[in-house]
Amino acid sequence: MPRYAQLVMGPAGSGKSTYCSTMVQHSETLNRSVQVVNLDPAAEHFDYPVMADIRELIQVDDVMEDDSLRFGPNGGLVFCMEYFANNFDWLEESLGHVEDDYILFDCPGQIELYTHLPVMKQLVEQLQQWEFRVCGVFLVDSQFMVESFKFISGVMAALSAMVSLEIPQVNIMTKMDLLSPKAKKEIEKYLDPDMYSMMEDSSNTIRSKKFKKLTKAICGLIDDYSIVRFLPFDRTDEEGINIVLQHIDFSIQYGEDLEFKEPKVKKQHNPPTPEVEEEPANLNYDEIFQDKVNS
User: Fold this and answer.
1) Which family does it belong to (predicted)?
2) Which parts of 23-131 are beta strand (E)?
3) Does some domain include residue 266?
């Protein structure tokens, strides 16, 4: 039986831990078992139980305090993730093997892990060897996506992760519940964007011809091939959360291999009915005798 995994990615502060917590609570209402694995060695607090925590293996604070290494926060995080890549056996032991596992991996927020470092790609390949069907979930903060240039930057970050990891990916705009009604109306055009019209709206602010040409080429790439689209995520909207979960389940084909279980029927303990002997049918002996004579 296959196992299922979500790699929850995105910039720092995009709401990855909140997303995991919301999905765990939502899955409980659906009577689904969902586990969370923390892969952020710099995490400090999360309000959900974890089945494995990378901080049991290595922590950023310990690396930064090591006099022989002398790493800063970003360098320490990269060192921790490379150390983690060399010790995947710890993760395998922590995960165990249970049929129909559905696990959310809460990943670090440093974008370089998904652009020019092989750590996350190695993790994906290892999970696939363990029979996991993996989907990337890339989060961006909707509060910073209400301007066209910031939106294009967020799209390129999501696209970098898609190209690097080569797995199905669902892109999500988080914290929709924190937007004002005016901002919610404004951000609707970014959920299904028309990049060329967005480019025209911002053409007056672009002074450099080279920058304008580059921006037009990026917008054309996004618009012509429909590579990146976003789903809204409001943690207070159960229907919206369910739509996001359905998109992810469809991308990893969750549920197709689950065996159908018929509902159990309670047995009724009725007293046995007495057997009634059937009366023999009335026989016409004259007809039987006549048939024998004729034969």
Assistant:
1) Belongs to the GPN-loop GTPase family.
2) 35-38, 52-53, 102-106
3) no
Task: State residue 195 phi and psi, 5-degree precision.
Answer: -65, -35
Report the DSSP beta bridge partners of residue 52: 37
- pTM score, two decimals? 0.81
Range of the domain at 154: 3-194+228-252
Interval 200-229: pLDDT, tens: 666 666 667 787 788 888 888 777 766 788
Measure the CA–CA gap between 113 and 39, rounded to whole angstroms. 12
CATH number, residue 83 = 3.40.50.300
Q: What pLDDT digit, counting tens, does each position of 45-59 carry?
A: 888 889 999 999 999
On whether residue 284 sits in a domain, the answer given is no
> Rounded distance, CA 198 to CA 221, Å?
14
How many structural domains is the chain composed of? 1
Residue matched to tokens 């049929």:
99
Tell me whether residue 141 is in a domain.
Answer: yes
290 domain residue, yes or no = no
Reading the block at residue 149, the tokens are 């240039």
